[in-house]
TrEMBL record:
It comes from the Bacteria. It holds the Pfam family PRA-CH. Catalyzes the hydrolysis of the adenine ring of phosphoribosyl-AMP. It catalyses: 1-(5-phospho-beta-D-ribosyl)-5'-AMP + H2O = 1-(5-phospho-beta-D-ribosyl)-5-[(5-phospho-beta-D-ribosylamino)methylideneamino]imidazole-4-carboxamide. This is Phosphoribosyl-AMP cyclohydrolase. GO terms for molecular function: phosphoribosyl-AMP cyclohydrolase activity. InterPro entries: PRA-CH, PRib_AMP_CycHydrolase_dom, PRib_AMP_CycHydrolase_sf. It comes from Halomonas citrativorans. Residues 57-130 form the Phosphoribosyl-AMP cyclohydrolase domain. Pathway: Amino-acid biosynthesis; L-histidine biosynthesis; L-histidine from 5-phospho-alpha-D-ribose 1-diphosphate: step 3/9. NCBIfam families: PRK00051.1. Belongs to the PRA-CH family. Binds 1 Mg(2+) ion per subunit. Binds 1 zinc ion per subunit.
Length: 155
């Protein structure tokens, strides 16, 4: 039993601010009950390559997508455009395998440490963050590893 188990969901993350690695935490399901999904039931998830720390992409997760990811270790997101679960790589073959997952201090953002197979971006680039900005101009900072037509066929 954890000293955090009986706390209301809306105060759990505030109480965890003072927690230490030695504390016993509530079960994952209890923590997920306290996660601050937005009004559409979505949680932003940042995918980072676990060994290089390269930020690969940001996508959205529902609770169902998060639970599937935690249980299978194959990353599953929620596609807002298709309005359904999206298992990363299901059409391109470029999968993400979960190494670890961490919630931020407010329980409203998720950081996924992943092992990315090939490009993470639908443009065929390693990272979705390929458009660099300054106050004066923008530049493309990486070439596609695989042309999108090769990843998805001619769409």
């Amino acid at each position: 039993m954890s000293r955090f188990d009986q706390l209301p969901a809306d105060t759990l993350f505030k109480a965890l601010e003072a927690a230490t690695p030695q504390d016993t935490l509530p079960a994952t399901t209890t923590l997920l009950d306290a996660v601050r999904f937005n009004a559409e039931g979505l949680l932003p998830a940042i995918a980072q390559q676990y060994d290089t720390k390269e930020v690969l992409m940001m996508a959205w997760m529902t609770r169902e997508a998060l639970e599937e990811t935690l249980s299978t270790h194959r990353v599953c997101y929620y596609s807002r455009s298709r309005k359904k679960l999206w298992r990363k790589g299901e059409s391109s073959g470029q999968q993400q395998h979960l190494k670890s997952a961490a919630l931020d201090c407010d329980g409203d953002t998720l950081l996924l440490q992943v092992d990315q197979t090939g490009p993470a971006c639908h443009t065929g680039r390693r990272s979705c963050f390929y458009l660099s900005l300054t106050s004066d101009d923008a530049t493309i900072n990486s070439e596609p590893l695989i042309h999108p037509n090769e990843l998805y066929g001619n769409r």
